[in-house]
Structures are given as structure tokens and as C-alpha cells.
Design goal:
- Belongs to the universal ribosomal protein uS14 family.
- InterPro entries: Ribosomal_uS14 (IPR001209), Ribosomal_uS14_bac/plastid (IPR023036), Ribosomal_uS14_CS (IPR018271).
- Keywords: Ribonucleoprotein, Ribosomal protein, RNA-binding, rRNA-binding.
- This protein is mainly α and 101 residues long.
- The chain has two domains: 61 residues, Helix Hairpins (Orthogonal Bundle), CATH 1.10.287; 30 residues, no CATH class.
- Helix content is 51%, strand content 4%.
- The chain contains three helices and two strands, in the order H-H-E-E-H.
- It has a two-stranded antiparallel ribbon.
- Helix 1 runs antiparallel to helix 2.
- The longest helix has 29 residues.
- It starts with a helix and ends in an 11-residue tail after the last helix.
- 8% of the residues are buried.
Amino acid sequence: MAKKSSIEKNKRREKLAKQYAGRRSRLKAIANDESLSMEERFTARLKLSELPRNSAKERVRNRCEVTGRPRAVYRKLKMSRIALRELGSKGLVPGLVKSSW
């Protein structure tokens, strides 16, 4: 189980990323548009840098929904390989059959 503080920090980052997503995308579009003048693009970059760092979606870490483990997480299931195996062995994941021979 991961530290509670790490899990909560990641939740705050997800919330901030969702909150600032529209603003960031507009500023990035302006900053990367080469048809605009250099000054307009530069001011967009400055405004982009004034936004909180944790509002960038790249800073959000994929974590297991069950245990909070940061590594070996399946995106589709949002679950780590260890939690998936445990729940699969108990028969709690529909359609998953653990092979044994």
C-alpha cells in the first residue's frame, strides 16, 4: 500500500489538471501558432508558465485504484498487476481466469 500522502497529492494533481485543462490548451495553441507575432506567442508562454506546475497533466502519475501502487499499472483497468492477480484469483474480476498447470 502506498503512502496516503502520495495518493492524496496525486488526487490534487488530477483535480488541478482537470481545472486548468482548457486554459492550458488555449495558451499552448497560441504559443505554438506560427502565424501570430513573436510577442503574442511569448506572452502566451509567460502566462502558461504562471499557471501552477501541478496543473500539467504530465505530472499526474498512473496509480492503482486498489493499492495506490505507482508501477505496473494497467491503464484499462487502473489496477496494478499484483492487485489484478489477487482479485482474479478470488474471482472478483469478470472474464479473468487465472491459468494454472
